[in-house]
Every structure is written in structure tokens, then in C-alpha cells.
Amino acid sequence: MTDQPGVVVTGVSGRMGQMLVRELAAQDRLKLVGAVERAGHDWVGGDLGTCMGGAETGVTVTDDALEAFASAQAVIDFTTPDATVAFADLAAQARAVHVIGTTGLAPEHISRIDKAARHAVVIRAGNMSLGVNLLTVLTRKVAEALDADWDIEVVETHHNRKVDAPSGTALMLGEAAAQGRGVSLDAVSDRGRDGITGARKRGDIGFSAIRGGDVVGEHDVIFAAAGERIVLRHIASDRALFARGALRAALWGQDKGPGAYDMLDVLGLGDD
Fold it and tell me: Residue 159's domain is classified under what CATH number?
């Protein structure tokens, strides 16, 4: 591992992209060596610092991801599912650690990403925060302890510009609850209730999504039975925590062998 592994940020003009750039500048364990945007974007060809309204950084925004990745030890990617799949192939060619915070991934996207992980380190998580990943562990443990007489509902709230629902974090929590119950989430997931839906099905895991204002992220896992409820909650008030988690993952992955990892691995909370 080099003293300061080089990092490329994809989707650099987005809110998370710019947050990652600022967090990289605030620490000294990783260095920014590249910035990628889609072809035709106004920032392509410009100095990243100038594009962000500040001083020059010496890093030029490019739409050539393969060239950018070739000089990097890590790629941090909060973009779109189709873009992430393409970046996974290129990061694997470069043998760079690929940290993926992209949400809305379908099974076919994940399958492609897992193929790339045969050749390089891929760290994928619907949420990069320590608190949320602790919450997934707690959710699984509580689900293990309670039978299907306890209804499970995952309620998530985000800002009004979020394009996918349920959130990646909500799906992480639902998956943790399903693992605790020993069932497939696909078989018990209950989403989008509207109209006369009938009674709630025993054993289902329900999802509700709320959108409004500038909410960074709030997630509740509700276990409800006759006469009592258990509510596990996480509230994110600063988007920078996701960027800091991604940087931690990029550094952690430097001495790991090829494979698919998640933030539980990074934080030492995964199963032995």
C-alpha cells in the first residue's frame, strides 16, 4: 500500500461528489488524483477547484474514467446504477478498490458488480455511516428474537430530490430483518399500499417512504405486537458522515484481496 493511496471521485459535480472532494481535502491519509463526470458535462476539461467555485487544485475533470482509474488505488462512486456497473468493470481492470454508495441497484446490476469483485475489491453499501450499520446489526438481532406475531415496518424519510424508494438504507434494514427471521426479503416485502389492501399479512416486512424538504435521512424499524412496540431509529443530520464512511472504506480496502465486501466488514461488525 502507498503512503497516500490515490482516489478518483465519480459524479464529482453532484452533492456527494463535492462532499467527498471537501472531505478528502480535510484529511491526509488519502489524496485526490482524479475527478470524473459524464461526457458533455460543463465541468469536463476544467480544473476541479475552479468548477467548485474555489482555488485551482491541479485536478482536471475528465469524462475518460478508464484513464483516470489507471492512476488510482481507489474509486468512490455515488452515481447511478448503470454508471456504477460500467465503473465496476473499469475499476476491476485497474485493480482499484471500488467503493459504491449508489442506491437503486437492481439484481442485474448487483450481479455485474459481483463479477467485477472477482478481480478487485468492491465495497458496496446502501449507507456508509457507522450508526446505520450498527442499526442493521441490532435489527437482525431483534428479528431473530421475535416471532412473526411481531409485525416489522421500515419507515424512511429523505429530502424531496431523492429519486429512488425505498431508500438503499431501508432495503439494508429490511434485508437484516429478513435474515434475522431466516426468510428471503423478496418473499415477504410489502410496499406501496394504496386503496383497499386487506389486512396486513403475517410475517411481511413493510416499507414506507416519506419525501420532503432537505431531510438528510431518517430511518425507523418498528417491531409491533399486541400491546407493545419496539422502535429502532437512526437520524442523519450531516451528509458528510456518508463521505467520511466512504473514505474509511477506501483506505480499509487497500490491503484486502478481491471480493465483495460491505461496511459491516469495514467496521469489523460482520459475521465471523
Answer: 3.30.360.10
